[in-house]
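Running this now, will post back.
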Amino acid sequence: MATCWQGLWAYRFYLIVFFLPIFLLPLPILVPTKEACCAYTIILMALLWCTEALPLAITAFLPVIMFPMMGIMTASTVSLEYLKDTNILFIGGMMVALAVETWNLHKRIALRVLLIIGVRPALLILGFMLVTAFLSMWISNTATTAMMLPIAHAVLEQLHKMPTDRDVEEGRHNPAFELQEQKEETNLDEKDNKQDCPALPTPSESKTQQNKEQLRFSQGLSLCVCYSASIGGIATLTGTTPNLVLQGQVNSIFPRNGNVVNFASWFGFAFPAMIILLLLSWVWLQILFLGFDFRKNFGLGEQSKNQERAAFEVIRREHKLLGPINFAEKAVTFLFVLLVVLWFTREPGFFTGWGNLAFSDENGKSMTSDGTVAILIAVIMFIVPSKIPGLTQKPGNPGKLKAPPALLTWDIVKKKMPWNIVILLGGGFALAKGSEESGLSKWLGDKLTPLESVPPAAIAFIICLLIAVFTECTSNVATTTLFLPILASMSQAICIHPLYVMLPCTLASSLAFMLPVATPPNAIAFSFGGLRVTDMARAGFMLNIIGVLVITLAINSWSIPMFDLHSFPSWAQSNTTGLCGVSQANVTTSSP
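Update: finished.
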């Protein structure tokens, strides 16, 4: 019997892929409508994404097969959804991030900031969190975590290193002198007040307590890196894939939205939320793993500075190994800063951007997009050499000259570009388009009309909680891909601004803090050892609550004037929302 169950478990993915489509077949057979066929595809893909019986990207290709065969959309129409402007933005942004990684610019920034902040326990955690969050705003959360955790553990090794013979010889650590002082002080205390003097801990007890403190500090530092990587990604549109899913879904479902979600508008909304969540997370991790002795946490108490000096020396030595900044790093830094400036000033909204001035259409709207800018900078990186222009001799062959490589080469892009995410984005856009074409969105909107009596603030809060729980066991990209079209239909049905429910869903999908399998940064931190699932769950549970509260604050405060959330926009009108032009004052009146 045990062997049978083992066999079923070993072949579980094959069984899921084979039986799941058959199990769901009654839906399109008993209800032979386009809406039911589209729902069949969406449910099938959702379950395959949740179980990961097939690779996520392969599951994302199912609309290319299902929609034409079910008469929902033609194959050419479905295929067009797989490479839209949002995909181009992701590709361009990833190319720039790969150039930053290739030339170790992110490592130089990280080490420099840590040298400035210092290595006192509370400040060390804050330093790693700030650096990791900043880097994950621009490069992959996974790459940031994989780079920062070895640095963190190298610093911990020096902080926790036992005193050496050299320390004793130089007088930095003299056990005999400490014992002598301790003995003299004990004798004085016994003479003055023998009854009240407490028993001193034995060396073994002190050592055990010290090991426990070191283990907790090590756990806290590992978690602070992986958590801040997830938190930092929400600040920019290209920081994490769910943000791009939101932009693509809004542009696909509401094509007349006027580019309401762009790099500048997203940064203005998400960056303050990221800063608040990051600081509150720092406070929580400090309390959980360092305790309430803030004087000790900030290095204000009486304690030896030798370990801190050693840890500081590790960071300084790593920074020195990078050598002086070279031409390639300077060029990548300049192009990266130029990219960010162009993103912010293309179409900022509160003043006329360069996109409106130089590349506008007949309506004055910018014909360029954030993806245009990202690809432009990426192409320039393929052109600019990595060394000051000039011919260099090929190593091992003095007679042959060789030009230096470019800042970015196709070999690097081919090896490191996550093409599966590009396909996954396209699959989400195809699902959203299929829901619209089949009429499933309209049907779903009609069924959600009773929610109109629920206060919008309560709806947003419940959505945050639901997504925060769901994303712990499902890919955050798959989570947003599944829920955003449903929430868009719901917003049209109950006449509230679509972004009022879609923004909380997107941010909450990044609150994957409780389980090692929830997100790659968590898995990397867990693989370094010293962490149990209960440690991560205990720390992550409170962070999830803090994250939901911060998102609720953001969506009911500064985001309302930014996105005009107090009224139902004209670009969200559909045949089923003809009466939604009335002012949506209940958003602001019911919000805290």
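Strands lie at 392-394, 397-402. More later if anyone needs it.
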